[in-house]
């Protein structure tokens, strides 16, 4: 399939208000797809949809909390009612919690798993049956390089992303029998708000360790989202199983498979400095505590 074939195709993008999701939405809009920008940040999603429409594209915004199956169901049902089909489902919304597991609270595990894993599962539970009925469609689950390699300082995130990789591998095989394609998008470092935790994530780190993390991301030269989106959309058209950008991260994955002990050692060395700072300074009292359930609605405003 060439990129031109995206014309009039229907694409839902979860987490479409920001970063990678917003860039994918805009690029698909330019290619002529009909786009649903679905996000917990509803007002920002509307801005993205408005931008796509102002460039002549076709887009709507939809309020979505991927943690709620009913919310996902509504987005999917509305889309089928509006446009009759779902051709592409970018299961993309995600949050990050950075920091050493020594400082984790139980919520640092559950918050990440609720969004990054259960959110993805909710997407599949609602979209997959539609695509099976259609006998066509492509689900693109956003995992991460953190789902393919050893990844410290963001362990709950790595757990969630390894799970999304596993899910995608299995579903790719099962889906084939139903005419449904499945890919795992595994970006390396991409310049988006999630590098600092994102709107709903957090860095459970003191100031020194936060500065160290920022320096580390800069060393990895995060790719701009506008550069990433066309590459991802082209890779989806080629039905790649694992979509990895920036491409040099593929070498790291190769190294991990060739010698897990070696990548583990490299990771240990890279993490040593951050760990030292995170563990030797008092935990920063200004690091926000995870939001209680009751506060979640307020945070959405
Ligand atoms: P981002 O923070 O810019 O965007 C994440 C989006 O998800 C935001 O619009 C946010 O409102 C939305 N979101 C969060 N919780 C939600 C919920 N409960 N329901 C609905 N929407 C929700 O971050 P980015 O980088 O664009 O992240 C997109 C995906 O890419 C995530 O799954 C992330 O884990 C993944 N990723 C990002 C990398 C990077 O370096 N930026 C690297 C590897 C993977």
- Strand adjacency order, main sheet: 3-2-1-4-6-7-9
Spell the H/E element sequence. EHEHEHEEHEHEEHHEHHH
Identify the CATH homologous superfamily. Answer: NAD(P)-binding Rossmann-like Domain
Q: Characterize the biggest β-sheet.
A: 7 strands, parallel
Q: What fold name goes in the CATH topology slot?
A: Rossmann fold
Question: How would you describe the overall organization of this protein?
Answer:
With about 300 residues, the protein is α/β, with parallel strands linked by helices. The chain has a single domain, classed as NAD(P)-binding Rossmann-like Domain (Rossmann fold), CATH 3.40.50.720. Helices cover about 50% and strands about 10% of the residues. It has a seven-stranded parallel sheet with strand order 3-2-1-4-6-7-9, with helices on both faces. The chain has a two-stranded parallel ribbon with strand order 5-8. The longest helix has 29 residues. The C terminus is likely disordered. Bound molecules: 1,4-dihydronicotinamide adenine dinucleotide.
Describe the protein's topology:
Layout: E1 10-14, H1 19-30, E2 34-39, H2 42-54, E3 58-63, H3 69-83, E4 88-91, E5 97-98, H4 106-134, E6 138-142, H5 155-176, E7 181-185, E8 202-203, H6 207-219, H7 225-237, E9 242-243, H8 249-258, H9 260-280, H10 293-300
Parallel strand pairs: 1-2, 1-4, 2-3, 4-6, 5-8, 6-7, 7-9
The site of 1,4-dihydronicotinamide adenine dinucleotide has 32 residues, from helix 1 and helix 4.
Summary of the model, kept short:
With 301 residues, this protein is an alpha/beta fold. 52% of the residues lie in helices and 12% in strands. The strands form two sheets. A seven-stranded parallel sheet has the order 3-2-1-4-6-7-9, sandwiched between helices.
């Amino acid at each position: 399939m060439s990129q031109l074939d995206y014309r009039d195709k229907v694409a839902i993008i979860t987490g479409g208000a920001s970063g990678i999701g917003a860039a994918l939405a805009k690029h698909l809009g330019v290619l002529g797809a009909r786009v649903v920008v679905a996000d917990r940040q509803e007002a920002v999603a509307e801005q993205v949809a408005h931008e796509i429409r102002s460039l002549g594209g076709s887009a709507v915004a939809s309020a979505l909390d991927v943690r709620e199956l009913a919310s996902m169901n509504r987005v999917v049902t509305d889309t089928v009612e509006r446009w009759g089909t779902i051709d592409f489902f970018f299961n993309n919304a995600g949050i990050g919690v950075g920091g050493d597991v020594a400082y984790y609270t139980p919520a640092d595990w559950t918050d990440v798993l609720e969004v990054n894993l259960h959110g993805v599962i909710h997407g599949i539970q609602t979209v997959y049956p539609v695509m099976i009925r259609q006998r066509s469609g492509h689900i693109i689950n956003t995992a991460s390089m953190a789902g393919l390699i050893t990844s410290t300082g963001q362990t709950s995130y790595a757990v969630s992303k390894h799970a999304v990789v596993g899910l995608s591998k299995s579903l790719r095989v099962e889906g084939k029998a139903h005419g449904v394609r499945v890919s795992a998008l595994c970006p390396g470092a991409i310049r988006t708000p999630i590098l600092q935790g994102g709107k709903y994530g957090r860095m459970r780190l003191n100031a020194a360790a936060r500065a160290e993390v920022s320096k580390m991301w800069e060393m990895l030269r995060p790719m701009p989202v506008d550069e990433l989106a066309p590459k991802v959309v082209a890779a989806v058209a080629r039905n790649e199983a694992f979509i990895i950008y920036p491409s040099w991260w593929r070498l790291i994955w190769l190294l991990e498979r060739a010698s897990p002990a070696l990548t583990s050692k490299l990771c240990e060395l890279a993490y040593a400095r951050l760990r030292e700072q995170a563990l030797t300074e008092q935990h920063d009292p200004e690091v926000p505590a995870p939001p209680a359930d009751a506060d979640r609605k307020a945070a959405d405003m």
